[in-house]
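INTERNAL AUDIT FORM
Audit reference: QA-55
Scope: verify that the stored structure record matches its stored sequence.
Auditor: D.O.
Record contents follow.
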Amino acid sequence: MTLPLNPDMAATFPPPVMEARRWLDGVVFPADRPLINVSQAAPMDPPPPALRQALAEAALNEPAAHLYGPVLGLPALRAEVAAQWSAAYGGEIAATEVAITQGCNQAFCAILSTLARAGDEIILPTPWYFNHKMWLDMQGVGSVPLPTGPGLIPEAEAAERLITPRTRAIVLVTPNNPGGVEYPAEVLRAFFDLAKAKGIALIVDETYRDFDSRPDAPHDLFADPDWRGTLVHLYSFSKAYRLTGHRVGAIVADTARLAEVEKFLDTVAICPSQLGQIGALWGMLNLGQWVAGERAETLARRAALEAGFARLDGWELLGCGAFFAYVRHPYPIASPELARRLVQEAGVLLLPGTMFRPADDPAGDRELRIAFANIDSAGIGTLIDRLAAFKP
């Protein structure tokens, strides 16, 4: 007997990072050429010792850390996000306009569940973040691709032509995953004005905001007194504080929207991880200088990768920033095959561009994503050397 399977789930592609890891099965990497894994944008080191100590003390001494908490998150963490974001973006955000989630992926799923049902449409710039596409596919919600062109920056004018009566939101990721590019403030403003005029949501995923190269606020949308009812902001504490395993993310939206989000969160997880939230709050209060150092190191790695690609014949760096480089390769080989060969012949694991584009988009066959924040500048040099030595 075969149990029934939701056809929307069956039609959703497998998790790309897990698929890529299967390419390692049976491959032996010699000691003088260990694997360079640039497939996933996640810190490979644990949190700094002081944060680990704070987590340990909370686990030992705070009984509430092991119990259910508020569905929308710890009040102190919500208040701290509201205060720091208000200062950073030059606007006014209340603690009641912040919800804490089990990672930023859950934040996306939660907010989309309040906006769209099967048959509705969401506009996603391409190349897109594959988990966004996967969630929409699982829910039977249409993903409308918005091509971004050679600069990987979407245009509001092009998005407007894609809006239909079924459109519920436009999703932007900046700094971008997978492209790495930082969307200019005027681009975000144009999309906000478009979304507001059309009565749809603008979802801005700023998971990598702590690693933006610009010294000032990346946009002024929260300074607009009319941001509520249009703008939704998503964030992850995982990258800044190395809390990936604790799963802590955030949503900033108007209180009416968060009342609907609460239904989703209560049903799916009941509450976010208490220890993770304690760690995130401790980090926000104590690790400002440390995060600044992490940002400086990430920017240094970005510069090293940009310099490295300048000496690679035929390769083109399409976008670079935060944790990612998005590149075009010079070979007459489709990127999925090339990615597999790079594992076996160069000891490099990265993701093909086909994982970030619609199946019928030929651009993906020439593209690759490199999560360069996982390796230091010396490792980036080795990566460039291996790509230069690869012979198709």
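Auditor finding: record pair retrieved intact. The radius of gyration is 21 Å.
Action required: none
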